[in-house]
Amino acid sequence: MAYWLVILGKLQLAALILLVSSFLQQHFANGQPLQVPCFFIFGDSLSDNGNNNNLKTTANSNYQPYGIDFPKGRPTGRFTNAEELGFPEDSIPPYAKLATVGPVEKALKGVNYASGAAGILNESGRTRGDRIPMNEQLTNHQKTVSRIINKLGKKNATQLLNKCIYSVAIGTNDYINNYFLPQFYPASRIYTPSQYAEILLRKLSQQLRTLHRRKARKVVVYGLGLLGCIPYEVKMYGANISGCVDKINEAVMLFNNGLKSLVSDLNNNHTINATFIFINSTGISLTSSPGSITVSNAACCQVSEASAPQCIRSGKTCSNRTQYAFWDEAHPTEAAYSATAARAYRALLPTDSYPFDIQRLAQL
Ligand SMILES: *[C@@H]1O[C@H](CO)[C@@H](O)[C@H](O)[C@H]1NC(C)=O
Ligand SMILES: *[C@@H]1O[C@H](CO)[C@@H](O)[C@H](O)[C@H]1NC(C)=O
Ligand SMILES: *[C@@H]1O[C@H](CO)[C@@H](O)[C@H](O)[C@H]1NC(C)=O
Ligand SMILES: *[C@@H]1O[C@H](CO)[C@@H](O)[C@H](O)[C@H]1NC(C)=O
Ligand SMILES: *[C@@H]1O[C@H](CO)[C@@H](O)[C@H](O)[C@H]1NC(C)=O
Ligand SMILES: *[C@@H]1O[C@H](CO)[C@@H](O)[C@H](O)[C@H]1NC(C)=O
Ligand SMILES: *[C@@H]1O[C@H](CO)[C@@H](O)[C@H](O)[C@H]1NC(C)=O
């Protein structure tokens, strides 16, 4: 397999989610009926659009050079330089902003609960500072649901919530900011990769069922990318012949395979009246063309020992961002993910999504 193919596996998801919401948005902008009325987002830094800005954490991105590609040239709290995704900055507000100042009307189109460094497990990402783990994101969502019910009445609120798409992209930090950080977390001494994947999946299964109890009926669950190819991990563990840390990719593969089975179980369970789909992020990135990307083993911004894996404040950036797969030492550039993001929405290969893609999910 060509080197860049392996490397592109690092493509992450935030991206995909942002692009998907831009697709949904475009349909709206074109005067066509909106495919779904609302979009709720759960996850980590790959989806965070500002929830970490006021937390005490190193996992935020509300400083230069993050946001360098945004129209106003300023950071917005998104981790990647993801400007071209095309939807207005405020279309899906971060919960942090909405909870304090937002009218409930803004929540009717969806809310973003994602938080940098967050994981499926409460403790994942703890060494990065404050963050909002998946359990707490679900608690925040419960608060939004209550407000929507107060506003619309139970019947109309349920009708609305049943039609929304719910995006869940979580688990990366349970590996890179937990299991594969043995100096701070005991997990890898206690559990084999297989046992650990099982623990994560059991927790995530409960979390997805909670979402279902909150009236979610259309749920997109993203598999993890090739986390062993992240420059920060390669720096820490050393590369195998693949250019990546094989043992990390192997551990993540166990999780991804299990996640697909979990989605299948949920869909086949008659007490759960919802449709879940699995997006094969790794598979999509392994089979997509690299476009202009030539640099996959280095960050595009200056990273110091203290700032790693993030850019240093006001540091230099590379001049040609479209040639880089990674923006900082952990988060992909727009160039890296936009090439494949579309396939989460409209599958190109049968392996891209299971049992079908987001476009079809939206039409149900
Ligand atoms: C994780 O945090 C939630 C609160 O968000 C709490 O209810 C739960 O008991 C915690 N789980 C563990 C295993 O500590
Ligand atoms: C619920 O929806 C119906 C039909 O769209 C509408 O007539 C009614 O006023 C709504 N109820 C509330 C409380 O908004
Ligand atoms: C990957 O590299 C590590 C460290 O050099 C080595 O111990 C391990 O056996 C290699 N794994 C594979 C699958 O080659
Ligand atoms: C279906 O889901 C219910 C409720 O979450 C659970 O108790 C049951 O074991 C599941 N059934 C199967 C066949 O997985
Ligand atoms: C399942 O959900 C669909 C769509 O939300 C709804 O039309 C149907 O009545 C539900 N069925 C049950 C058994 O709850
Ligand atoms: C993901 O896609 C690849 C092919 O692109 C396939 O080999 C792999 O089995 C798929 N993974 C899952 C969990 O479906
Ligand atoms: C930037 O990358 C593009 C696409 O690979 C290439 O056409 C262009 O010449 C590059 N520009 C610079 C300044 O390197």
Automatic annotation (TrEMBL):
Name of protein: GDSL esterase/lipase At1g29670-like isoform X2
Similarity remark: Belongs to the 'GDSL' lipolytic enzyme family.
Coiled-coil segments on the chain, per record: none
Keywords in alphabetical order: Hydrolase, Lipid degradation, Lipid metabolism, Secreted, Signal
One Pfam assignment: Lipase_GDSL
Keyword RNA-binding carried by entry: no
Gene3D superfamilies: SGNH hydrolase (3.40.50.1110)
Domain of life, source organism: Eukaryota
TM helices/strands, residue ranges: none
Subcellular localization: Secreted
Chief location: secreted
Signal peptide: 1-31
The species this protein was found in: Juglans regia
Keyword Lipid metabolism: yes
CC per GO annotation: extracellular region
One record GO biological process: lipid catabolic process
